[in-house]
Amino acid sequence: MKLSYEWLSKYLDLDGVEPKDLAEKIERTAVEVDSVTRLDYKLKKIVVGHTLEVTDHPDSDHLHVCQVDVGEDEPIQIVCGAPNIAADQDVIVALHGSRIKDNVKIKRSKMRGVKSNGMICALQEIGYPDNVVPKEFVDGIYVFPADSGVKPGDSVMEALGMDDDIIDTSVTPNRGDMFSMNGNAHEIAAILDQTANFDVAEIESSLQSETKLLDQIKIEINDEKDTPVYKMMGVEGVSIKESPFWLQTLLMKVGIRPINNVVDVTNYVMLKYGQPLHAYDLSSLKGKTISVSDAKEGSEFETLDGMKRELRSSDLMIMADNVPVGMAGIMGGLDSEVTNQTQNVVIEAAIFDPIKIRKAARYHNLHSEAAMRFERGIDYSALNQALKEAAILIAQFSDGRVLDGVVEGSNVKKSPQVVTVTLPRINKILGTSLSKGEVLDIFRRLDFETEFDDQEQTFTISVPVRRWDIHIEADILEEVARIFGYDNLPVTLPTGAPTVGQLTAKQKLIRASRNVLEGLGLTQAMSYGLTTIAKSARFVKDDHAQVKVNWPMTKDREALRMNLISGLLDDVAYNQARSVDNIALYEQGRVFYANGSGQPEEIEHIAGVISGSIQAKSWNEPEKLVSFFDIKGIVEQYLKNLALTGEITYTAVQDLDGMHPGRTAEVKLDGQIIGFLGQIHPLTAKEFKIKETYVFELNLTEIVNAQKKLQHYSVISKYPAITRDVAMLISKDVTNEQILNVIRETKQANLVNVELFDVYAGEHLEDGMKSMAYQLTYQDINDTLQEDTVNQEFSKVIEQLKEQLDATIR
């Protein structure tokens, strides 16, 4: 909410209270303040000019040479290219030596040989954003209207009210009352211990018509839960034209574009009272019955912004004889908008179900000023006055007359909320020693009617309807605390026995995981927990149910992720699209499965992705592209560092969605699947627009819960090691893992390492056979090994290989 300091000054005595000091008081007591700004910041020497003569530039088809009166002894000459420049206009002139937007300095110059002593400016050039500039001046210079009262030489910053301070507040959902100037005036009055002065408009007899609105329109509201209040007033004989200059400048200051005298009044009243209004062309509704009902599923409706929107059955619509004319609480329809031909208008003031308005606004991405207020709540007590003032102002500004009567469809009344709290309770919770008088004074400042029972030491507070956020004792305690001042509350230190802070076993393992993977060359990445429905279900073999978001912000954030790889592949695609081809990333986070209980099951996972070169090309080394065995080696080393007691095995799998059927393996711990690794399927890689990529994903929760070895450091042996090489012919069906199992199962007291160093299958070997060569390393940490001891152990290995695998030793 953008608060005009000048407008607030009409309600309160702000003399001696600087805008920044006031903003700090608001932030300390009520809601957060985003900024305090002035539109004239760093602007200087910008004045009102009156164009006396405008002629075509002799050497240009679009430039004009203007003689401009700027309040000096002689007119000045300015070359201007604006399409709407003409003689006898009051315009914005930046003089020689002036500063305009972005601190740009204007100097005398020549434009195609003609002297120019300044610049005639558009509103955007002096700091106004495009979206608040009146449409007729968006592509040209600004021309002051006749009722502005400006004269040559006047300061433009003062004429347009740019010297006003704008306090931009961030209104929280519970403080919808502060989405209005009146609501802010009430709040600031309590902060400053003042009484706000509010004006009350009444319809003068000269503005009153004898024609009854009820004879022209009817309202039927069937569901008061959806629409607790719905009222209309009308104005006949209107002339659609520009709003008064003061109203246009006020709206532009607070970020709203002036449209015409009818629309601008509805926006002004909305800012003042926090009550959104909508004006319809009465000719489009005359003789019809107005109602509020749910939309027809799948039907289309064209809103005022010219967009056609597909409606849902839960969207509330304003109907005229069952034909939609507006989206309730959000935006009106194009067919019933006020145009330059409109002669009679009807003004709608209503209160709608805030939940339905919020859901519709989010779904249709229509977060209008009206919707933001409706979804936070509306002041029931201000609606009648807001509707009446809007009708009066429209009649005044359009030379019309207010139709007789208010047509009501529903009018639910709200009574003040009554809350009780005791004085001892206040002091106990806040840690204060406030007296009865001090607390009563706080309630007086808040304009809460209060009675005090001396015997029970109890306050009975009648909370005004405008403060619909207060219901219970805790709300009252908060009001006392913030008006008393949070800085004034006593400061105490917590008591109790201190505890030694330390990481849990799970936290330690997660940190260790990150250290290991970073040590292996991977960089941590972080992805969104929400993704598309299709990506969420990728790379998941088990039949898990998805967790979908009821009201997604966007189409690509519709479901909670069931894997981490999709997010990492998005990261790969992002980098490769920017010519970063060598990528090695990992992510540790949670995936989510629906379990039927309403609360999704959260499971810790860890995943990695590598694409491009595992080793960059250099003068003495060729480039090495990543392969299946690189990603497998990373997983093996990671699991080895975690010292799991169980047996880790890898089994080929061909039916995992999104993975290459010939280059994918499941990772098992004691026969139970804990993850997978392999190459992304070429079709999936094409879909993500990435190159050949390898990934892994492991269930970190299973790893955390698995049994682990107690790790300790061993002294490096000072005695030499002895190696033995063995080469064998063996069937192609025998795997490396089988051979290693045979070697390990043979009793070897001093065998410390086995390494495969050669594999050959081809010419000079029998069909179905291959040659494999291993190096076995023996070492004793306590003594020097003897040849005989090593030979005995090595002989046992040879025998077992022959016996169990039918190997031929070469």
UniProtKB/TrEMBL annotation:
Catalytic activity: tRNA(Phe) + L-phenylalanine + ATP = L-phenylalanyl-tRNA(Phe) + AMP + diphosphate + H(+)
Cofactors: Mg(2+)
Residues annotated as binding Mg(2+): D469, D475, E478, E479
Organism: Pediococcus stilesii
BP terms from Gene Ontology: phenylalanyl-tRNA aminoacylation
The name this protein goes by in its record: Phenylalanine--tRNA ligase beta subunit
Organism domain of life: Bacteria
A single MF term (Gene Ontology): ATP binding
